[in-house]
């Protein structure tokens, strides 16, 4: 597949409106359903009735509208709040509508089914984050940090994941990449100016040592970071009734 065809394919995929439950499954007070895509407002217009009598696409960006999700016969399914967000200032970079409803599994499925009837499709696992990556809102490291943030088991792990989500590791890698490109430029220049006998070797050597030192520092900290994220397994070994449980 050529780069152009791949780009067109990505555009076609990300243009589709997807829908998914973003809160844990099961009964509870509040559930949040997210829709993202090019025609998300048109889809939600078909399945909503706002208390102010207006349509979803007529609402200001990053505003909340009170109303109901309705079926095709305009029967009310649930009383909800609609959070309307116009792209690109959203997580995915697309137009997004988030529906805050009562967290009953039957209501959740009824709302999602109605969205599908109106033209959406169920989101695949991680597809909202995938779209954010494809549309340049976050990079792969930040996408991984989201998963780490969700599954963090300690406060230290939470801090590390949050820093990575905000771009700390991405910024470090970008700096290393720029430093390597500078070194390559000096290497190229050393061949271009052979006749002038300009010696770039000291500068190249110094820059390479700096980059290597920075990488070694990060590699040395990896085991500690891994322990913080994954924890340490400890085995209590001893004879029966020796007090291991205590």
Description of the structure:
Helix content is 48%, strand content 17%. It is an alpha+beta fold and 246 residues long. Strands 3-4-5-6-2-1-7 form a seven-stranded mixed beta sheet, with helices on one face. The protein is flat. The chain starts with a helix and ends in a 16-residue tail after the last helix. The N terminus is likely disordered.
Question: What is this entry, summarized?
Answer:
With 246 residues, the protein is an alpha+beta fold. The protein has eight helices and seven strands; from the N terminus they run H-E-E-H-E-E-E-E-H-E-H-H-H-H-H.
If you average the pLDDT, what whole number results? 86
Number of strands: 7
Termini separation: 61 Å
- Count of DSSP helices? 8
- Relative helix content: 40-55%
Radius of gyration: 26 Å
Strand-and-helix sequence, N→C?
Answer: HEEHEEEEHEHHHHH
Shape: flat
Strand count, sense and barrel status of the largest sheet are: 7 strands, mixed
Give the low-confidence spans: 1-11
Strand residue percentage: 15-25%
- Largest beta sheet: what is the strand line-up? 3-4-5-6-2-1-7
Structural class, from helix and strand content? alpha+beta
């Amino acid at each position: 597949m050529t780069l152009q065809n791949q780009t067109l394919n990505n555009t076609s995929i990300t243009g589709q409106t997807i829908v998914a439950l973003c809160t844990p499954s099961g009964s509870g007070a509040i559930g949040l359903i997210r829709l993202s895509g090019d025609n998300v407002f048109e889809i939600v217009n078909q399945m909503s009735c706002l208390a102010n009598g207006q349509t979803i696409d007529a609402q200001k960006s990053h505003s909340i509208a009170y109303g109901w999700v309705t079926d095709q016969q305009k029967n009310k399914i649930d009383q909800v709040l609609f959070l309307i967000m116009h792209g690109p200032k959203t997580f995915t970079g697309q137009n997004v509508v988030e529906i805050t409803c009562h967290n009953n599994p039957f209501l959740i499925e009824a709302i999602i089914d109605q969205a599908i009837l109106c033209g959406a499709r169920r989101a695949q696992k991680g597809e909202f984050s995938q779209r954010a990556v494809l549309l340049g809102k976050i990079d792969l490291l930040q996408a991984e940090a989201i998963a780490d943030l969700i599954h963090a088991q300690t406060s230290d792990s939470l801090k590390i994941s949050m820093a990575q989500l905000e771009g700390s590791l991405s910024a470090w890698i970008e700096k290393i990449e720029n430093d390597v490109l500078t070194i390559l430029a000096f290497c190229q220049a050393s061949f271009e100016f052979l006749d002038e006998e300009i010696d770039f070797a000291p500068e190249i050597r110094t820059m390479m040592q700096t980059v290597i030192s920075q990488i070694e520092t990060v590699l040395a900290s990896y085991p500690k970071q891994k322990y913080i994220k994954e924890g340490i397994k400890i085995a209590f070994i001893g004879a029966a009734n020796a007090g291991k449980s205590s």
